[in-house]
Amino acid sequence: MREQQQALIKLLTQLLHDYPGIGFASDQDFRFCDVAINLGQDRRPVEADIAAKLLSDIRQLTLNGQKVKATQSSIHINVWVGEHSKRISSEHYLKQHTDFGSLSLSNVAYIGDSLNDEAMFEWLPVTFGVNNITPLLGKLSSPPSFVTAANGGYGFAELAEMLINSR
């Protein structure tokens, strides 16, 4: 996985020469299978048309005969090769660490903020989005079942407070 990731970084580095000022996410060293391109994590957000062109250009790439996959989140373009998703990883984790056969998915909740969370919104019956997902709702076939009033981390805190108060 690391070798494939390094090859993907090399391929993307070449592409990013056409996009001055855009680079990899500051947390890239902590990623295992994907590559994250920074669109707005700790920088002024990249203009939407430039981000869309970059995403399109990435999706035209191949690595070792495999199509490169990419999705845009609220702050990154996440890029990978193979079958990886938040749902696949979460399901794998639950199968390893719970009695998955008797686990009711209605007891599992998820909160997200962007298009790359759609697989989780589709899979689980109890899902939440933070408010900054609102402009993207029309692009989601499976939106979250509830959207917080606050954006970003404040929306996560809003949900946490609501859950604590409901106990």
Shape: globular
**Number of structurally distinct domains:** 2
Instruction: Give the SSE string.
Output: HEHEEEHEHEEH
Radius of gyration: 17 Å
Could you list the spans in which at least 5 consecutive residues all have pLDDT below 50?
A: none
Give the fraction of residues assigned to helices. 25-40%
| Main sheet specs | 4 strands, antiparallel
The end-to-end span amounts to: 42 Å
The beta-strand count equals 7
Integer average pLDDT: 93
Q: Treating each run of at least 4 consecutive H or I residues as one helix, how many helices?
A: 5
Per DSSP, what share of the residues sits in E-state strands of 2 or more residues?
15-25%
Strand order of the largest sheet: 1-4-3-2
SS-derived structural category? alpha/beta
Could you characterize the architecture of this molecule?
With 167 residues, the chain is an alpha/beta fold. The protein folds into 2 domains: 80 residues, Hypothetical Protein Ta0175, Chain: A, domain 2 (Alpha-Beta Complex); 81 residues, no CATH class. The chain is 36% helix and 17% strand. The chain has 5 helices and 7 strands; from the N terminus they run αβαβββαβαββα. The strands form 2 sheets. A 4-stranded antiparallel sheet has the order 1-4-3-2. β3 and β4 form a beta hairpin. It is globular and about 50 Å long. The protein starts with a helix and ends with a helix. InterPro entries: HAD-like_sf, HAD_sf.
